[in-house]
Design a protein that fits this description.
Structural class: mainly alpha
Distance between the termini: 20 Å
Radius of gyration: 19 Å
Number of helices: 6
Low-confidence stretches: 195-199
Length: 199
């Protein structure tokens, strides 16, 4: 059953991962006050409205935070981990470990979105007019709040903006010093050992 388990894990992680990515992107767009008339923004909104609209009737926003999106992300991550645990050779984590691992993995997703967004934006900046296409313009709006502190500390030198490089280094340090230890702790709480499925 090893081949079927691997294929099942791949499908579960891919489908849930893609949808959670879209929901997380919607939260980030709201936080960054990005342009929701952007075609990519419109796709994200339409893709996430079916579960979010009814959920928002039950769970209102708190202090401007989209609580319904957070609850939906947690539910999806918990369901994903439970489905993975049902595969042959895997274990279903206990409730404390399941909750801890879900929160840590969602935090990891958030950090990685910013990491890759800044990296992609830096590459697109080498291409003329990148900020005028929908993807480039949206990336600029999403990463601006994260890059602003670095730009205040590191002004452009000879026309070169080094703030994206500084931000990437800082985010990668957060992954090494915060995300990875938290993932190891949550994995040990959930399974007694580090998770074997790569999540």
């Amino acid at each position: 059953m090893g081949y079927f388990s691997n294929a099942g894990a791949f499908l579960i992680q891919t489908l849930f991962g893609l949808y959670m990515l879209i929901i997380m992107l919607r939260m980030i767009l709201q936080w960054a006050r990005a342009d929701f008339y952007n075609p990519l923004s419109q796709f994200i909104v339409k893709a996430t409205n079916p579960p979010l609209k009814p959920l928002r009737r039950l769970i209102p926003s708190i202090a401007g935070v989209d609580t319904a999106s957070i609850v939906l992300l947690l539910l999806l991550k918990i369901i994903e981990l439970l489905l993975l645990g049902l595969l042959p050779g895997q274990a279903i984590p206990g409730i404390p470990g399941l909750l801890a691992l879900s929160v840590v993995e969602l935090f990891s997703l958030l950090v990685n979105i910013f990491l890759f967004s800044i990296f992609i934006q830096a590459i697109l900046s080498w291409v003329g007019g990148a900020n005028y296409n929908p993807v480039g313009a949206l990336l600029h709006q999403v990463t601006a709040p994260v890059l602003r502190p670095f730009r205040n500390l590191i002004p452009p030198m000879s026309g070169m903006d080094l703030s994206p490089l500084a931000a990437i280094i800082a985010i990668y340090l957060v992954i090494l010093l915060v995300v990875t230890p938290l993932r190891d702790w949550a994995g040990s709480l959930a399974y007694g050992v580090r998770p074997m499925m790569g999540f």
